[in-house]
Specification:
about 160 residues, mainly alpha, two-stranded antiparallel ribbon
């Protein structure tokens, strides 16, 4: 059995190696399977699988399961789950379910669309940057998070 320190070091090593691998490939390029990467890196496949899931959460790769190859994502490319989350937010703002000043329940949105919380935050940041109907507030009424802006009400 591995100690927690050794396991964490192996995971950190795998994440770093995978980020470097992704950086050396163009968007759309296919990466080796988790098993192939584990063999190449000399790590347990379970550690590589966790590392790959982290890269999925960071939006760097598209990946379905350990037996399949991953694809390198284009910078800023949204997953289908993130697009669904944004559509849900736009719809709820337009119909008044989410009002100006209201904190967005990022965890609930993430769970309802099947994307992880980091992916949900990236999607909301994209919405803030491109449409301005939400904004990040470090010191919002309910703590740090994304809030519906007043501009959203004017657009609906």
């Amino acid at each position: 059995m591995q100690s927690a320190v050794t396991w964490e070091a192996a995971l950190a090593s795998a994440v770093l190696a995978l980020r470097q691998l992704v950086a050396s490939h163009a968007p759309g390029d296919r990466l080796p399977t988790a098993r192939e990467l584990a063999n190449r890196l000399g790590l347990q496949q379970s550690i590589v699988v966790i590392a790959m899931r982290r890269l999925v959460d960071e939006g760097l790769i598209k990946w379905g399961s350990p037996g399949r190859s991953a694809l390198v994502r284009a910078p800023g490319e949204l997953s289908p789950e993130q697009v669904q989350l944004l559509d849900q937010v736009r719809s709820r703002v337009a119909c008044g379910d989410y009002r100006p000043g209201q904190a967005l329940p990022a965890s609930v949105l993430a769970a309802s669309t099947g994307c992880g919380r980091p992916a949900a935050r990236r999607a909301l940041a994209h919405l803030a940057a491109t449409e301005g109907i939400v904004a990040w507030h470090e010191h919002g009424a309910y703590g740090p998070g994304f809030y519906v802006t007043a501009l959203a009400q004017a657009r609906s």
